[in-house]
């Protein structure tokens, strides 16, 4: 048995204890909301260099932003501006297509056929992370931090763009697995999706996000890191620590963020976004269902998850992960999460703003929050 107030007290204490672990850098945020359970909780814990003490401070949820990219693709599919099974060659320039072909050919088992690799690689492969392409984010982030991606003689000084990042990866990295056979998580796929969105809409990626998602949902305090500004003034975002360095403060980091992350907003606006997906208000429910159900096993180290179109969802594991813990949403490397738990109709959104918390955050959501929500649900049903 568990009452509403008791659950709030327990989650507040558990969240506070986890957020206050030794040597923790950054502020932590949690929002739990369920109309069905008549439950709402918002928490913020800790301090950072922004010195802001407000649970509505905007936060960057790292790769949770990929769900915004995949939903934007879904909206373009709904408007018949593209299809999930379109080959990327319809949208990418010849240099990118040739570079992708060169990269794919480095795999010993690559099957040369009459079709170029870019004619076989589809939007669906990119969404599901089954392209086999290598990840360029972390190798280039190390170069960015070392100042190797700057041209001091150039006007903008930044000598890398998402497109150039892809070209760099095609030249310097190795192809990971045969097309469509394995889940290989990489920001490279989402850089390509960003370029496809720009080609399909005739807009920049940030303009498309604003017009198709932020504006319709009145997400007035949302923006893309380094690419746009919020419609209404708000607090500066909380620091986002990767290996004890604030990612948002790294010059040029936004160019490696792009369609693979980028979204910054207060937690209530992320809630608005998730509610719009679940309720079919932003995107047709049939497309949302496809994005969730058309999936592939993620494999090690995310053994308890399957991956759809930018969507993480749990899969049952005997004795470890019961069926009633099923949830879907998205995850960020900095201990960020945005999930919907259908059985209790609950949204669980938050972040620890530190990459040391990636696994801890998932255990907290599934093994703590959802477990206790189920107890409250049972109490209310008795």
Automatic annotation (TrEMBL):
Domain of life of the organism encoding this protein: Bacteria
Stored Pfam families: Beta-lactamase
Cleavable signal peptide: none
Residues of the Beta-lactamase-related domain: 17-357
SUPFAM superfamilies: beta-lactamase/transpeptidase-like
Protein name, entry field: Beta-lactamase-related domain-containing protein
Source organism: Photobacterium jeanii
